[in-house]
Each structure stands twice: as C-alpha cells, then as structure tokens.
Amino acid sequence: QMLREHRGRLTAQLAFNALADHDGYPVSICRHQSAAATTSAAIVAEPTRRRLHVCRGAPCQNWSQTYCL
Predict the structure, then answer these.
(1) What is the pLDDT of residues 25-56, one digit of tens each?
(2) Contact (Cβ atoms closer than 8 angstroms) between residue 20 and residue 58
(3) Helix (H, G, I), strand (E, B) or coil at 10
(4) How far apart are CA 34 and CA 42, in angstroms?
(5) What is the distance between the alpha carbons of residues 43 and 16, in angstroms, rounded to a whole number?
C-alpha cells in the first residue's frame, strides 16, 4: 500500500523507506523493536540496472551498500 502511489517510478530509496516503516507496531515492516521478530537486513534488487542494494541491520538505522552486478 505504501508503494502503490509510486508504481512505475519506484526507486531503491523509496523501497528502503517502506522497509523502514514502523506503522502498526508490533507487526510493522521494520521490526527491530519487537521481541517476536527482528529485522536483521533489507535487500532491494534492481535487476534491469544490474544493482543490488543491501542494508545490514535495520533499514531505519543503517545505510545500504550498492553492488553492481
């Protein structure tokens, strides 16, 4: 639902913003604050651009590293 308005023009940064979302805690997308589940990494792939964006740890607290394939 968060990404629907960006359909057709989604960027890696917008995807990471959605992965860092805390709305609906304790069942939010980013769950590093929950005892029931923990977000330990986030990955966004751009296959047509041959890029892989990897965030080690919670995406709301860490920067991603981009790998060119």
Answers:
(1) 777 888 876 667 788 899 999 999 999 999 99
(2) yes
(3) coil
(4) 16
(5) 8
Tokens 């296959």, residue?
47
Beta-carbon contacts of 2 under 8 Å, excluding residues fewer than 6 positions away, are 17, 18, 21
Closest of 21, 26, 12 to residue 54, by C-alpha: 12
Q: What pTM was computed for the model?
A: 0.80
Burial class (CB in 10 A: 0-12, 13-18, 19+), 15: buried
The residue with tokens 């805690």 is 25
Radius of gyration, alpha carbons of the chain:
13
SS3 call for 44: strand
